[in-house]
């Protein structure tokens, strides 16, 4: 039998679940305490306010992305790595979707978090650019440095804005699903289409088919 999570860990995990389903703006510390069956005072013993909980969750998200958004050690990248990066990104986006949905509000509300996010964003862009250069070195993508830089930036814009795009076009944040987020990852992959080396196209085509979600499901008529 698994040990019961510590109170602090329970607060973090349940807050994440509530933020993801209801949106961070709609959840107060009183809501979190009631959901956990504890007094607000008990919650404040572990976290002084909601911003501290959000900062803790951002740290978890940051560590998750840092753990996979890096070049493999001791070998070149392969098409299989492309699958790994995209699926890891999809899982992180889904598990911490409230961060993507309410990002501007969260950063405006906490200057320290905003400073952390800027460093995180720069690190992600640096690592993503290194990964794309790795695909070029492996002969999977045929690109020059300026194209790599542009592809990196465009991919980042899609990843960080996709959840908000879904919320604005669908009108219901609770309607989000992993399938809808998968289309966002497909959009990132689609950016590379014109740069794929011929020998890599069959394997990547299979990945396209795995990630594709029809547009009418994403933007209902």
UniProtKB/TrEMBL annotation:
GO terms for molecular function: DNA-binding transcription factor activity; transcription cis-regulatory region binding. Signal peptide: none annotated. Gene3D superfamilies: Tetracycline Repressor, domain 2 (1.10.357.10). Residues 28-47 bind DNA. Keywords: DNA-binding. Pfam families: TetR, TetR_N. PANTHER family: HTH-TYPE TRANSCRIPTIONAL REGULATOR RUTR, HTH-TYPE TRANSCRIPTIONAL REGULATOR UIDR. This is TetR/AcrR family transcriptional regulator. It comes from Metapseudomonas lalkuanensis.
